[in-house]
Amino acid sequence: MTDHAVLTAEDHAELRVRMERDAALGDAVMSCVTVPEEFRRVQAHYPILFRRDVGRDAFMALALFGFEDGENLFLEDGRWDADYVPLALAIQPFLIGAPPAQGAAKQVHIDMASPRIAANGGEGVRVFDAQGRPTPYLETIAEQLGTLDQGWQDCEGFFAALRRHELLEPLTLEITLDDGSTNRLVGFHAIDEDRLRALDADALGELHRDGYLMPLFMAVASVGKLSTLIARKNRRMADG
User: Fold this and answer.
1) How far is 75 from 82, CA to CA, in rounded Å?
2) What are the phi and psi torsion angles at 104 (to 5°)?
3) Gap between the Cα atoms of 148 and 41, Å rounded
4) Which of 74, 137, 139, 202 is least enclosed, having the fewest CB within 10 Å?
5) 131 with 142: CB under 8 angstroms?
6) SS in 3 state form for 13-60?
7) CB-based contact 96:107 (threshold 8 Å)
8) Which InterPro entries does this one have (predicted)?
9) Taking the chain, what is the end-to-end CA distance rounded to the nearest angstrom?
10) Average pLDDT over residues 39-56
């Protein structure tokens, strides 16, 4: 269940948000959506894979945290064991809401049903200060929301270019762990490196002009993080 509301100083003057990372706070996820705008930062820690939404006949990019539903190998003792948390998770429990009127600015909304809302003035970071002004935390969130929203808008052109040049290929990955068990990763796509290398100067120039070439290279580089993720899985299993 969700309970979305427009964020205002009048209605949420005492609101505090819990910042620790924990499964109980919604962080036990195998992956989350990411956008090309943040691929450079995401690829430093996580594999970036792609999945097709059959209902919308559209692709989305995902930062991978584990190999099974509900598995996040970056969660450790109330903290996130990486220097960067993808925007789609970092902004929770906030989201961008539709503007009240055509041409108006979009609004910051908050999910009051989120477990990140500190109950009854409990511990957490304030959203507004004593004078009702946005705290530095909220200012950071607003900036992240803007980046994510713009990233969503830019995705249509990015994925159209990938389809036009046939740069996505299905990926099936079978992983044998140190204990002999097997994890099979199916339903994902990755960048077809052979087709990317074979693009002519005009195609590469078009991708560069539109700002898509760098995110493509970042997605390709990120696949190397699969081995790091496997190592995390082996350590987690060894630790019990």
Assistant:
1) 9
2) -80, 160
3) 13
4) 202
5) no
6) CCCEECCCCCHHHCCCCCEEEECHHHHHHHCCCCCEEEEEECCCCEEE
7) yes
8) SapC
9) 33
10) 92
For residue 235, the number of C-alpha atoms closer than 13 Å in the C-beta half-sphere is 11
Q: What percent of the chain has pLDDT over 90?
A: 78
Predicted confidence at residue 92, as pLDDT, reads 96
CA distances from 90 to 69, 94, 139, 222, 240 (A): 20, 9, 13, 20, 28
What is the chain's length? 240
Domain boundaries, the chain: 4-238
Cis peptide before 93 (omega within 30 of 0): yes
Of 29-38, 42-51, 178-187, 225-234, give the lowest mean pLDDT range: 178-187
Cβ atoms of residues 130 and 15 within 8 Å: no
